[in-house]
Design brief:
Layout (H helix, E strand, L loop, with lengths): L3 E2 L4 E3 L1 H4 L15 H10 L5 H4 L13 H14 L3 E3 L5 E10 L2 E13 L8 E3 L8 H11 L1 E2 L3 E5 L5 H10 L5 E4 L5 E7 L2 H12 L3 E5 L1 H16 L12 E8 L6 E2 L3 E4 L7 H8 L3 E7 L4 H12 L7 E5 L4 E7 L2 H7 L5 H4 L2 H11 L9 H4 E4 L2 H10 L4 E4 L5 H9 L11 E2 L9 E2 L2
Parallel strand pairs: 6-11, 8-12
Antiparallel strand pairs: 1-5, 2-3, 4-5, 4-10, 5-12, 7-21, 8-11, 9-10, 13-20, 14-18, 14-19, 15-17, 16-17, 16-19
Amino acid sequence: MSLIRPFRGYRYNEQKVGNVGKVMAPPYDSIEEYEKHELYSLNEYNIIRVMRGLSYDDDTETDNCYTRAAKYLSDWIEKEVLVRDEKPAIYMYEQKLEYHHVSYANRGFVVQMKLCDMEEGPVMPCEESVSKNKADRSKLIDSVGANVSMINCMYIENEKPLTNYMQKLSERKPDFYCVIDDGTEQRLWIVTDKEEIDYICHLLDDHTFFLIDGQNRYEIALEYKKKCASNNPKHNGEENYNYIMTLLTNAYDDGLMQVPYHRLLRFPRGFKEEFFVSAAQDHFKIEKIIVDTELGEMVDTIKKQIATTRHVNRFAVYTGKNYFYRLTLTDEKFLEKILPDVSDSYRGLDVTVLNKLILEDIFNIKEEAYIERVTYVKSITAGINELRKGTHQCMICMNPVKAEQIREVVTEGEKMPERSICVFPKPASGIIVNLLD
């Protein structure tokens, strides 16, 4: 039995909602509280109402964001705001965007992927999961019985027959097109021909899938499957709740980017720059780089100065002034001494070096203190703006992790440290809804 299969997705009805780009939303964990109100105002049918609705002071057990989400979804289906495709399909999904003046087109296949215990493979978790949203996502799936957003798995394909096949598919007119609010173009090609579906499934069958986005949702879907199976005397393993809606993308395609999480740090007793410079010299070559120009030049210079073409662990530490410090690891032997039980691949990660030799060794920030003292940002510009508010005292700028590093660590039976993987672009929520009936 194949791990993946086609399914009949629900999609928005343009005749009912008008501009379909206005009913999409970013992934739930990328939305700040204030942004919910903005998404609510875009369109009365915006998927935010189902995915991460507003809470109110007078909410009760029978009237809250989860019960309202279930009502919105059922009402929209009843009123044909969301309409189910007539035939089971595999969806080719493309996102086109411009990022730092470069155009990207990320393509992948959206399928139902069979849920299986992680240790049984071939789905391999890649990163230590953050459990803070698990209770919320569990309540949501219990209420709505649907996937309103897709998880993302990478597969490794050097020869690229699937990539070439997607290129051929893209020459057809897309079955769906819209532009969402951040300017990203969204396209879908709906593959219903049995021979084509069989061909796609055959090419994907032998792959290992690296779960790069959505581990919490995968684990919650597993729990939901077990609950549904125990309550269904006719359970046969082929019900929709045995599967999860998944975007499968090739790690070596040009359109999928890894972007870094930079770290903003808080120091309750103040940041002592002289101490930092002195302490960093134990394990790093440290260079002070002055950039006496505008903000944009600072951002570009930081990126250029820490970029590497070979395996070098390098960071920038910025304190809001007209300079930053470039740190390059020189003492790899010390990592072997303090982390003897992990693989060379894991030790070689920038995040490992950062956590052990900078956060812990220099700043005495242990893992249990990350919530209080470390804030994650994907943009150096956003980090600089936060520094100017005075809530943080310095920012550590990172390089993105490489796809081969993820594969090497995971195949060693390890997981990437928390907040080391960030893929871009992430699939829009609401592009397809997968009902788990």
